[in-house]
Write a structure and sequence with these properties.
Shape: rod-shaped
Distance between the termini: 98 Å
Structural class: mainly alpha
Radius of gyration: 28 Å
Helix content: over 70%
């Protein structure tokens, strides 16, 4: 009986370790998902800034004598 309890304890410990690993993996994934929006906003802002800069330079060059 003692051997069976010891075996159950080992299996329970293994399950708990795997559960902790899965919780950490899910937490990391959620953290990455939280970065998607700021990255997209940053890329969009950079693109808009580049378009405005190019348009302004083209206007200045086009109007120069």
């Amino acid at each position: 009986m003692t051997e069976k309890v010891g075996g159950v304890d080992k299996r329970l410990e293994k399950v708990e370790n795997e559960q902790a690993t899965m919780i950490k993996a899910i937490s990391d994934l959620q953290g990455f998902r939280g970065l998607i929006l700021p990255i997209n906003v940053g890329a969009l802002s950079a693109t808009i800034g580049a378009v405005i800069t190019v348009a302004a330079k083209m206007l200045l060059i086009g109007n120069s004598p």
